[in-house]
Amino acid sequence: MNPSVRRAVALLFMLAAAVWEQNVMASGLQVSPVTLTLQDRQNAEGIWLTNQGQNTIHAQVRVFSWNQQGFENQLNPSRTLVISPPMLKLAAGERQLIRVIRMGPSSSTREEAFRLSVNELPPAEPEKNKIQFVLHYSIPVFIQPKGNSDNSAKLQWSIQRIGQDAFLEVSNQGNSHAQLSAASYINRQGRRKEITPGLLGYVLPGATMRWILPVNAADSAPGSKLEITVNGQKKVQQL
Questions:
Q1: What is one GO biological process annotated to this record (predicted)?
Q2: Are residues 107 and 167 in the same domain?
Q3: What CATH code is carried by the domain that includes residue 225?
């Protein structure tokens, strides 16, 4: 491509980017906090939805029971928790409390897990020549087990080799969830490979989860290490 054509293409990209920026409507929906924990005798808790944008927002909030099977997260409609209000309208700058209400006492010896699905709804009459982004939040909600003082995660760590791939496999035999983040794999020679700088995922009580490692199966070996943050605490785990 000759220089004049290259400059013309670059100019077109710049003009397209300017038009894009002028025709995108960013949403202002914010949710706080981003996780909830209800104690054994606690009947309700709440989250705040705030519209920090310049346009009115319509949103829907639903709740699902959260389980993990076959190394996958599974969500199903829940009757244990209810939401009030489930539908809302927020003017610019407005704030609304969403109540999360339990419908009965905890009967489980393990922590129960749920997800709040907060969905911004697209406008009924979108503005012409505007691209409207709508946001979705998935908020973890945990209910502490009844009459159990040892509310902690008890994790077992291993490497599983499947074909050419190596996987980190984590089992939780405790009574509470484990939140895993900021994970790096360190081989026997001390070479480090980042798995993720942010959230890796959760392991619920009684569940086993699996994540692919950034190494081939042939390159993973006993004696390697995992540097990872578990429930906010940084640790180094032998594999």
A1: cell wall organization
A2: no
A3: 2.60.40
